[in-house]
Amino acid sequence: MVDDKNQPSAKKTPIKEKEELKKITEAETIVWLMFLFPIDVVCAVIDSTGVGMAFAPLLQGVGTISSSCWFKYSKKHAGALQFKNQLKKNGANLLPFLPTLTAFFLVEVYKHNHPDKFMTAGKIGVVAGKK
User: Fold this and answer.
1) What are the sequence ranges of the domains in the chain?
2) Nearest-5° angle of CA 108, CA 118, CA 124?
3) Whole-number pLDDT of residue 28
4) Higher-scoring residue by pLDDT: 7, 101
5) What is the pLDDT of residues 82-105, one digit of tens each?
6) What's the superkingdom here (predicted)?
7) Are 60 and 93 in contact (CB under 8 A)?
8) d(Cα 4, Cα 2) in Å, to the nearest integer?
9) Phi/psi at 82 (5° precision)
10) 81, 85, 89: which is closest to 60 by C-alpha?
11) Is pLDDT of 65 > 70?
């Protein structure tokens, strides 16, 4: 006779696999960085010519919107296309010589893969009754 207590439940396995599929892998991160970092380098070169404020934010805006849409539609990241997040990212694109696309993408990947670390402040506010 087979002991059912020691067998893993069939219902738990697909949920765990589904959660793992939503995470961003290292390979996906590297591929996206191969797209975003060259845009940052080109924008730094444009910034050094003096016409950077006219063209660099437009070029970086393409990278920002494309990565945000990927987060929203491929990885089901709820706040990826929120107005406040887009305003922060596009506002940071105005800073000259900084790899803002790469930095924001890496922060977004970390926040997406570790949601429990960024939800603790909200949980503390709920526990304390200050929400």
Assistant:
1) 25-128
2) 165
3) 92
4) 101
5) 888 888 888 888 888 889 999 999
6) Bacteria
7) yes
8) 6
9) -65, 150
10) 89
11) yes
* The pLDDT value given to residue 35: 94
Which H or E run contains 66?
helix 52-73
Please report where in the chains the tokens 């010589």 appear, as a residue: 97
The total number of residues shown for the chain amounts to 131
- 23: amino acid identity, one letter: K
Maximal CA-CA distance, the chain = 78
In this prediction the pTM is 0.70
Which residues fall within 8 angstroms of residue 57, CB to CB, at 6 or more apart?
90, 93, 94
Work out the percent of the chain whose per-residue pLDDT is above 70. 74
- How far CA 29 is from CA of 10, 26, 45, 68, 127, in Å, comes to 31, 5, 24, 13, 35
The type of residue at 103 is A
122 pLDDT more than 50: no
Task: List, in order, residues 6 or more apart from 39 with CB less than 8 Å away.
Answer: 59, 60, 62, 63, 101
**Measured between alpha carbons, how far is 110 from 121 in angstroms, rounded to an integer?**
17
